[in-house]
Write a structure and sequence with these properties.
Mean pLDDT: 89
Signal peptide: 1-24
Protein name: Serine protease
Largest sheet: 6 strands, antiparallel, barrel
Number of strands: 15
CATH superfamily: Trypsin-like serine proteases
Organism: Streptomyces lunaelactis
Structural class: alpha+beta
CATH topology: Thrombin, subunit H
Region (Disordered): 49-80
Number of domains: 1
Keywords: Signal
Shape: globular
Length: 334
């Protein structure tokens, strides 16, 4: 890419970011999702500059609602064994632009019931694609499966080539859906809207006829209506924590038996586990053993406290299932 082309790409990206400051239209309805491809924008260097957009909730969040279980003991996050495409192929990093600059979350490639074996769907947190109440869609949203596949850090990461950092390429979000409750109530710093903090993307790669699932070889099943925290076993959570003491370059996981966290008494209760992953892990998949015996996605990371001792994620019910179906239905027209 020439210097002139790079400058043009960054100018285009800046305009798209500034456009993202606007909120919903005058009637309060969700504005249309728009995420045009900007060739050459997400270079390896720019990915490395992206920072977590998460805002931690206050310690003690949910303690006075009456349905919150005692705070869990922190579970130290464990590094995921490289290579990631052999051990956690469905996981990846989500990159996007906010008005504050390039940002990161985590995401999971999930099955598409309408296209068995050919899914292009990615599950993540709502706050990783939309700013919530009073905000709008973020821009230049891409998914990078098995990011930093070899688990490199330090000097080795800085000098690695693109095939090692993005082994399956960069996939642009062509469509996205978030819960209307997130758009109306989403306030990550207060936990507002967190029971509905989920999103589904349909991603594509330019000049790539194969789907995401065909390319990486896997996609996770989604288990809607999984039991509550009192009726489900251990959960395993994956993500790319990007705040200290982590740097966002490597994949980590935690495993714990979930408890309940209630933000508002009249809203659904979240799952909560002990985990020391920090901002940047938001959107990462939560997995539990399904009745069929395999692991299935049951939630995604939504919020965590200032002290980074636990994570919480929404329980996926019928509204989440309908959102998933809408993206699946529209994927066929992309």
């Amino acid at each position: 890419m020439t210097r002139r082309t790079r400058v043009a790409a960054y100018v285009t990206a800046l305009l798209l970011v500034l456009a993202g400051v606007a909120g919903c239209d005058s009637s309060g309805r969700l504005s249309a999702f728009s995420n045009p491809v900007v060739e050459g924008l997400w270079t390896i260097q720019r990915m490395a500059q992206a920072r977590s957009a998460d805002t931690r909730v206050p310690n003690g969040t949910g303690e006075n609602t009456g349905t919150t279980d005692p705070e869990p003991d922190p579970v130290p996050a464990q590094p995921q064994k490289a290579t990631y495409h052999d051990n956690a192929a469905v996981m990846g990093k989500l990159f996007f632009d906010t008005p504050d600059g390039p940002s990161v979350c985590s995401g999971t490639a999930v099955e598409d019931p309408a296209r068995p074996g050919r899914s292009g769907l990615v599950w993540t947190a709502g706050h990783c694609v939309h700013a919530g109440a009073g905000g709008d869609w973020f821009r230049n949203i891409v998914f990078v499966p098995s990011y930093n596949n070899l688990g490199l850090d330090g000097t080795a990461r800085q000098t690695a080539d693109e095939d090692r950092i993005a082994p399956f390429g960069t996939w642009w979000a062509a469509r996205s859906e978030v819960a209307p409750e997130w758009v109306a109530e989403g306030k990550p710093s207060e936990g507002g809207g967190s029971p509905f903090d989920y999103a589904v993307l349909h991603v594509q790669r330019q000049a790539q006829p194969a789907s995401l699932q065909e390319t990486i070889g896997q996609a996770a099943p989604v288990w809607f209506g999984a039991p509550s925290a009192t009726g489900i076993g251990d959960m395993a959570v994956w993500g790319y924590p990007a705040e200290s003491p982590f740097d966002g370059e490597r994949m980590f996981s935690c495993q714990d038996r979930p408890g309940r966290l209630s933000i508002r008494p009249e809203q659904p209760v979240l799952y909560r586990i002990g985990c020391t992953m920090t901002g940047g892990s938001s959107g990462g998949g939560w997995f539990a053993r399904s009745p069929g015996g395999g692991l299935a996605l049951v939630s995604n990371t939504s919020i965590g406290p200032t002290e980074n001792t636990w994570l919480a994620g929404p329980r996926l019910g019928e509204s989440a299932r309908e959102l998933y179906r809408r993206v699946s239905d529209k994927a066929g027209s992309s």
